Amino acid sequence: MKNTVLTLMEMKNKGEKISQVTCYDYSMARLVDAAGINTILVGDSLGMTMQGYKDTLPVSMDEMIIYGRSVVRGATDAFVIVDMPFMSYQVSVEQAVENAGRIIKETGANAVKLEGGAAVAEHIKAIVDAGIPVCAHIGMTPQSANIFGGFKVQGKGEANAKKVLEDAFIVQKAGAFMCVLECVPPKLAALITKMTQMITIGIGAGAGCSGQVLVSQDLLAMSGDFKPKFVRQFAQVGQLMTEAYRAYDEAVKDGSFPSLEESYVKSDCSDEYLEELEHTHIAEINEGRNNNDQSNDDTGGAGSGPCLEKRGFDCGTGSHDGLSA
After folding, report:
1. Residue 297 belongs to some domain of the structure
2. Helix (H, G, I), strand (E, B) or coil at 304
3. Most CB atoms closer than 10 Å: which of 112, 128, 249, 269?
4. Is residue 160 in a domain?
5. Do residues 39 and 212 touch, judged by C-beta distance below 8 A?
6. Which residues constitute the domain of residue 37?
7. What is the pTM of this model?
8. In a 10 Å sphere around its CB, with 0-12 CB exposed, 13-18 middle and 19+ buried, how is residue 129 labelled?
9. Residue 26 has pLDDT above 80, yes or no
10. Cα distance between residue 138 and residue 141, in whole Å
11. How far is C-alpha 67 from the chain's CA centre?
């Protein structure tokens, strides 16, 4: 069954937990969908996981759309949310609405996500008013990591906790139906979940949220030694992939792959006929060389030879299909 805003809100109201993972391509989206994950986030974290940047800031709108539409094609039942990248909504409310509309129109996603609390309330309202569901993102917002001095826990201390709670109320009032709480103390995250009607999705925010999100590469142990405190590795897929690639490399180099069972043996011609083809082809090559040598003698230069003429080249002009050689 397709996950929608309504079905997800029903889960929230019934106290059922909601699962979310990041995903960036068609093949992975099919696997995530088959596993029954409720929601997929096409995060701008792809700048780090898929492109090798040190943060999310270089990611562009065009890139989010390419990755987003790939995921949508692979997700039948999962609710797909696409991140709005850095500087795709901060300039103005109008810019935010235009780019949110472009994401939905060009990817087929179900919602957009943007970072920030009170500072983006008008942007969220305008996007929702345009008919686009919005997932907010408060607490540690990676696009603002330079302001925070790095990826650090937000909401520590009474004043900071109050600010995060106020941001939650503000984005809810603006119309966000879901909100990611990143690197927020667990009791504060649980309080926000209790006091708001939004679906809260935690990442490093404890078990009291409506649901959880992890980066796929992190939960599959594909990120090398990188393992934040809040990550649990559910399988050593990175190690399995490395072992599989190594086994393939060895099989190719020792000649054991492909085997006869992995080849189209029954479609082959007889050995006698293949031997005849070999001898015939050798004879044609030799004849072509002789003709080419004769052409060189006749023209006093390097001739084009019959093989080029058979492929459609105009040997007199040095052109093919009207294009200069």
Report:
1. no
2. coil
3. 112
4. yes
5. no
6. 5-235
7. 0.86
8. exposed
9. yes
10. 6
11. 4
CA distance 181 to 208: 11
214: phi then psi, degrees, rounded to nearest 5: -135, 155
CATH code at position 143: 3.20.20.60
Cα–Cα distances in angstroms (integers) from residue 322 to residues 20, 222, 312, 313, in the given order = 56, 51, 11, 10
Measure the CA–CA gap between 183 and 205, rounded to whole angstroms.
Answer: 5
**48 in a structural domain:** yes
> Is the confidence at residue 294, as pLDDT, over 70?
no
Quick: pLDDT tens for 218-231.
999 999 888 999 99
Q: What's the total number of domains in the chain?
A: 1
Both tokens assigned to 194: 């209790």
Q: Which residues are catalytic?
A: 182
Give the tens place of pLDDT for each residue, 44-75. Answer: 999 999 999 999 999 999 999 999 999 999 99
Joined together, the tokens standing for residue 280 give 């015939």
Q: With respect to residue 168, please indicate whether it lies within any of the assigned structural domains.
A: yes
Q: Are strands 313-314 and 319-320 parallel, antiparallel or unpaired?
A: antiparallel
Instruction: Enter the tokens of residue 233.
Output: 């590795």
